[in-house]
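Q: What structure does this chain adopt?
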Amino acid sequence: MKQISAFLSAFLLVTFVSCNNEPVKEETKLATDTTATTKAPEPPAFQPYNITIVQHKVKDFDKWLPLYESHDSARKASGLIEIALGRGLDNNNEVTVSFKTEDVQKAKDFTKSPDLKAAMQKGGVTSPSTISFIKVVRDDNNLIETKDRLLVAHHVKDYDAWLKVYDSEGKETRAASGLIDRGLARGVDDPNMVYVLFAVTDIAKAKARTSSSELKKLMIDAGVDGPPAISFYKLVK
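A:
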């Protein structure tokens, strides 16, 4: 009996130790597996948004700027939030301003208002304003050192056909010409009006590219059916 009791005690001891050790091993393994399979949350999907771009010439940028800034509350009341301000590279009295637009109709009404017309006259605007209401469908807002920009606007016969040609050219080809893709947009009222924004890393290469016969042929192949509007400018805010 003493031998049986000793054997039974030894068996229970081994069983107790095994039962107390085994769950720890399983829990540790489970914790390791859970950590290994946990995925970081995916970033939210890009949501297209509207912006308004205003371009015109001014008599003196330094005099125009404080008057423009003093009109900010009126713009915000119409749902226009400034997101970028640039000066022309070849003529630094050419101004390009972009506004995030909460309500396109309110923005349109504001751009036609007598109040804005008076503010522009007071600020020394010397040319008719080109005002574009557009929907951004691609946007790379990662920080980038260069402040030089190129905005290209043109009309196409078929947006989807144009996009295939544009994408097939590839970012790398454009980058080799000093052009880094930053944004792509379509006209709010005419979706076949296309706007492409680039950061410019090499002005000479970029200008050579925009005037090249190679690009002209590519645009014809893509269905561009009108002369492009090309604006080089430098971001100042």
